[in-house]
Design brief:
By secondary structure, this protein is mainly α. It contains nine helices and no strands. The protein is flat and about 65 Å long.
């Protein structure tokens, strides 16, 4: 069950989506935009989406949420096309994803406060709290050299489910958004349990010593350096090709 749940939307569609956006990444390469620019644009659109949802314009909020997801797709394609993938870019992108998610849930809490019982505002914050737990589980497991990926509700599934809730509530099916959030809370809580069990089974019974933690970090660092070297080689190849084209055009 753990293995079957490890690949949901992100796992099944990552390859086809990457192939679809690859030409867009190459087109964006001709502009002066960087992956970080696209990530920031997505953050701004997500902030507008949160305001739209909070003010009760749910369909507009839904459209903006979808638009905010596009830069999140294109920044990776641009990074690959320009061979500019970096740890800093990955960190920035991941951090902005968390900010985006929490802004959207904050907008939903605002909407509930204006249109339903004030007690219902706790629901989006509960979803945010458990989602943060899932992210922490993965980060902590990876710091120990373990794998905590997968589960029923990763970020892609959460965004899709929230969009469904916004759509249903936006066309007048009250209280669809609250129902979707309850479903989401149950599913991400189950995901947290699945990840805990997965990491628990991987972890050794013996106490994790600092030496072993340092060894795991060293191994990850070696793998990371290999990836960086490969990216640098690809970048140099691309640069040489560009220089050859420029000489040929002269």
């Amino acid at each position: 069950m753990l293995k079957r749940s490890a690949k949901m939307l992100d796992g099944h569609f990552r390859g086809p989506v990457d192939r679809m956006v690859r030409p867009i990444g190459r087109a964006l390469l001709k502009t002066k935009l960087t992956p970080d620019h696209l990530t920031f644009f997505g953050l701004v659109i997500a902030a507008l989406a949160a305001v739209a949802v909070g003010s009760g314009r749910l369909i507009l909020g839904l459209i903006l949420v979808i638009l905010a997801a596009l830069p999140d797709l294109f920044d990776g394609a641009l990074a690959k096309a320009s061979n500019s993938s970096s740890q800093r870019g990955a960190f920035f992108d991941s951090t902005m994803d968390r900010v985006t998610d929490n802004m959207l849930l904050g907008g939903m809490a605002w909407y509930f406060a204006d249109n339903y019982s004030a007690r219902l505002t706790v629901l989006p914050f509960a979803v945010a709290a458990v989602a943060s737990l899932i992210s922490y589980q993965r980060a902590k497991a990876e710091s120990l050299g373990l794998d905590a990926k997968g589960g029923l509700m990763e970020r892609a599934e959460r965004i899709v489910l929230l969009c469904v809730g916004l759509l249903l509530e936006g066309i007048g099916l009250d209280p669809a958004l609250a129902v979707v959030l309850w479903i989401l809370l149950v599913l991400i809580s189950f995901t947290a349990v699945l990840r805990f069990v997965k990491v628990w089974r991987q972890a050794e019974v013996a106490q994790v010593t600092q030496e072993r933690i340092d060894l795991r970090r060293e191994r990850r660092g070696e793998r990371r350096n290999v990836r960086i070297d490969r990216m640098e080689e690809r970048r140099m190849v691309v640069q040489r090709r560009r220089e050859d084209r420029r000489r040929g055009s002269r």
